[in-house]
Write a structure and sequence with these properties.
heterodimer; A: 421 residues; five-stranded mixed sheet; 11 strands; B: alpha/beta; 19 helices
């Protein structure tokens, strides 16, 4: 019998901040996000110490590439620098490219399900503005098969997701203008949602449908085939933390807070599948399949099955829109539309903030920003906010259950979590 | 909600005109008449506007025109007329006459000004026009600096002010600060007070390091992206003069003498050294023949430009290190406990900044949050109220101010000491404004 895993809350940094410009390192960011999160959750360092004395607390740090971005490995050990209360607390860094935050969550929840610990502090962190976008683009290339797909290529990932757009267009025999308009609408929605999110990177940026549709030219350059700047997520400095807990700790915590344990959301389901690493192998494998990224679809189905829920039970989605084409493909994977009919769900307003199945009320990777290793943790934090009715201006009315999809590479590592009360 | 579909921008070729028009045409999706003295200038404004917001989509909503040929039609068609011509009563009042002649009742008119009286400018209009007349003080560059001071005067209508404020905030994405029609309004009053007083001290300590020393003492660790005197150099010594002279003449507060512009600045202005825009001012930058950048600073005593010095001030190094580690109260602790002239000056300037920011509540703004917003969004300086908390709270801050022999503002003496003083944490994270 495995335990349920509860979410006590957390915090994210303001994704608008450029920490290099501020002269602050990853360590400063880690310190701020951990302190803000513990304050938000209502845990102090004496509580960490008390738990650690009984070996009941652990830390999990999701991070993709601090070695290259900031010449630092071994991030799992750095909470000891935040406060000595973390001395002796088990911790490690987890990596799966842009799904690093999610594999940290996966490890944390596995230990809690097994009853090994009572509290897991999950951190996702990435400092990216230490280098130029071209150099950063090359670092990100290591999330693909670098030797075959990225070496010597400027901005390899936009090109890979540009190819995803090509395959979607060809396989579903869509009219190009309909497809491109749907991608522009995805961009518009994410930016519009981000305006309601006080921690989003793009909250003061200009975007509308007209601009998202005006592809080409120096103000909206092509970055990968059909995809232009407005189809891309951002280069972002940021971190996020969630605190997960076992049923016994959640019960204790709820009592202390004067709430019922059933008021605390839990992880209801999860999925984790890895597709072939190269994009060409993915396309070859899915030839003849209704889904262009079938392993993504499978990951979602696994999570639904584990949760005993279907798409009908999910009120809000946070998806991995590293590019508009990845959100497009996710729509049918979630079961919101039939494969090939994603554009109908987009154009009819289903995924819009006020729609039946809102996707990325936070603004998503395009609007809120994409600090690579932090995104998975940021997503589950946003689902926590949604199902506890604490998302402020970007609250989806009556959200009971939420689903997140976090991917690493070109939809290689797929991770899904379903959160609800 | 007021519908603003057509806007006339006068002075559309300037940085502020073009930048503001870019914001209005993009976020506001409004048709914008871009008016200037001649068509080339107006078209130049359109190019600048596109460049500032980085979208070609606004081009087809912008109509270039001239004051002579197009003002009448443009104004008659507009829901809002935004005047950004040169900062003088003569120029503004002349064009106001033309606006008044062609304006239809109900159209909002506003001006960008750093110091002129909004009430006096409103007198160019009839009763309906006066009700609809405001200052809309955007900051440069408008797309990036989202502050807008919305200045009302005795004759402006409260409902219209509310509607315009809502439009500026919700549609144009501005951080709106409501201010009274007082000299330099909120942001510049506070900002230029500190910058001018520091310029005075630069002269007093000219032989100890002058301009460069002052910027080292008030560097990023005191909550700003750029040293105060570098900021003066950046905005232009002539602009600085216009603002502080106006404040010196028309305000009478406890900081009155600090608005007196030091004579060395006048000397620099007289010789055409206005700052970054004219190649040199407080600072001079050049490149050697092999492309190496060199930076010089004006020596107040000798009048020459000396190589920009580096200072080794231990408390500055220590405090900056703490900021780099996000230990903000640790940095403030360093500042509070350090000894020596530099530390004394740093504490004095911080005390002055906090005291003066909070002292304008009542006269200029309704509450301290408006002053905090003005400094955070308009200057990228850590707002005074946030400083109070970083310094350890109201009690500690009062001590600091008393030690500096500066008046303790009522906002502090009447404050609830048990609560955080800064109320804008969710709107403006002040930590982001400290630089290591």
């Amino acid at each position: 019998m495995s335990n349920e895993v509860f979410i006590l809350g957390g915090e994210q940094t303001d994704f608008q901040r450029n920490w290099s410009k501020e002269g602050k390192s990853f360590m400063a960011m880690l310190r701020e996000v951990v302190e803000d999160s513990l304050t938000k959750v209502g845990m102090d360092y004496s509580e960490i110490k008390r738990l650690n004395d009984a070996n009941r607390v652990a830390v999990y740090v999701g991070n993709f590439d601090a070695e290259q971005y900031t010449t630092q490995g071994h991030l799992g050990a750095f909470l000891t620098e935040v406060n000595p209360a973390f001395n002796g607390v088990p911790g490690a860094r987890y990596e799966a490219a842009c799904a690093s935050g999610s594999v940290a969550l996966d490890s944390a929840s596995t230990h809690l399900r097994a009853g090994d610990y009572d509290v897991a502090i999950v951190v996702g962190i990435e400092v990216m503005k230490t280098v130029s976008s071209a150099v950063g683009g090359d670092f990100l290339g290591t999330a693909a098969y670098y030797e075959k797909e990225a070496k010597g290529i400027e901005f390899p990932f936009p090109k890979l997701f540009g190819r995803l757009a090509d395959v979607l267009l060809e396989r579903y025999k869509l009219k190009e203008e309909v497809f491109m308009d749907a991608l522009a609408e995805i961009s518009r929605i994410n930016y519009a949602n981000a305006k309601r999110n006080p921690k989003s990177q793009t909250r003061s940026w200009f975007m509308n449908k007209e601009h998202a549709s005006a592809r080409g030219g120096e103000n909206n350059m092509s970055v990968g085939g059909r995809l232009c700047i407005t189809d891309c997520s951002q280069v972002t400095d940021g971190a996020a933390v969630v605190v997960l807990a076992s049923p016994s700790y959640a019960s204790e915590y709820a009592k202390k807070k004067g709430i019922s344990q059933s008021d605390l959301p839990k992880i209801k389901g999860w999925g984790h599948r890895v597709a072939p690493i190269t994009f060409s192998a993915k396309v070859a494998e899915s030839e003849g399949n209704k889904y262009v990224v079938p392993w993504t679809k499978q990951t979602v189905d696994d999570a639904y099955k584990r949760a005993g829920l279907t798409v009908n039970d999910i009120n809000v989605f946070e998806t991995h829109d590293c590019f508009t084409s990845s959100e497009y493909a996710a729509i049918s994977a979630f079961g919101i539309s039939e494969p090939g009919k994603e554009h109908e769900a987009i154009q009819s307003g289903v995924i819009d903030f006020k729609g039946k199945k809102p996707i990325n009320p936070s603004g998503g990777l395009i609007g809120v920003g994409h600090p690579v290793g932090a995104s998975g943790v940021r997503m589950i934090l946003d689902l926590y906010k949604q199902v506890t009715n604490t998302a402020g201006d970007y609250q989806v009315e009556g959200a009971k259950n939420g689903l997140m999809l976090n991917i690493g590479g070109s939809a290689t590592t797929n991770m899904v979590f379903i959160v609800g009360k | 909600m007021r519908q603003i579909k057509t806007v006339t921008v006068l002075g559309a070729n300037g940085a502020m005109g073009a930048g503001s028009a870019g914001v209005i045409a993009s976020f506001g999706e409004a048709k914008v008449y871009m008016l200037a003295r001649d068509l080339d200038k107006a078209n130049e404004g359109i190019t600048k506007a596109v460049k500032s917001v980085r979208t070609d989509t606004i081009k087809n909503r912008m109509v270039a025109g001239t004051y002579t040929n197009d003002l009448a039609k443009a104004v008659a068609e507009s829901d809002w007329v935004f005047e950004l011509v040169a900062e003088s009563y003569d120029v503004k009042e002349a064009i106001n006459k033309d606006i008044a002649k062609n304006r239809k009742p109900g159209t909002i008119i506003s001006t960008v000004s750093s110091g002129l009286s909004i009430e006096r400018l409103s007198q160019s209009f009839d009763a309906d026009g006066q009700k609809h007349y405001f200052g809309t003080h955007f900051f440069n560059p408008p797309y990036k600096m989202i502050l807008c001071e919305l200045v009302s005067h005795k004759g402006s209508d409260a409902t219209i002010k509310k509607e315009l404020g809502h439009y500026l905030e919700k549609t144009l994405g501005r951080a709106v600060v409501y201010t009274n029609d007082t000299p330099a309004f909120a942001g510049n009053r506070i900002g230029f007070q500190l910058m001018n007083e520091i310029a005075q001290y630069a002269e007093k300590y000219a032989d100890k390091g002058g301009i460069a020393l002052m910027d080292a003492i008030m560097g990023g660790f005191t909550g700003r992206a750029m040293g105060p005197l570098s900021t003066v150099d950046f905005v232009g010594l002539d602009v600085h003069k216009a603002i502080v002279d106006n404040l010196y003449e028309f305000t009478k507060d406890a900081a009155h003498e600090t608005f007196k512009m030091p004579s060395y600045i006048q000397k620099l202005i007289d010789s055409g050294n206005l700052g970054a825009k004219s190649g040199q001012g407080f600072v001079k930058r050049s490149k050697t023949s092999d492309g190496k950048r060199e930076k010089y600073v004006y020596n107040i005593k000798t009048g020459s430009y000396d190589p920009y010095p580096k200072f080794d001030i231990p408390f500055v190094t220590q405090a900056s290190k703490k900021i780099g580690e996000s230990d903000y109260s640790g940095a403030m602790q360093v500042i509070k406990s350090a000894s020596g002239l530099e530390a004394d000056l740093c504490r004095y300037f911080l005390a002055r900044y906090i005291s003066y920011s909070l002292s304008i509540v009542g006269e200029v703004v309704e509450n301290k949050e408006n002053a905090d917003k003005a400094m955070g969004f308009g200057f990228n300086w850590v707002p005074a109220s946030a400083f109070v908390d970083f310094l350890g709270g109201v009690g500690e801050t009062i001590q600091l101010i008393e030690k500096a022999k500066i008046p303790v503002p009522a906002e502090l003496s009447k404050a609830d000491k048990s609560k955080p003083f800064y109320q804008l944490k969710d709107v403006l994270d002040a930590r982001a404004l400290f630089r290591a």
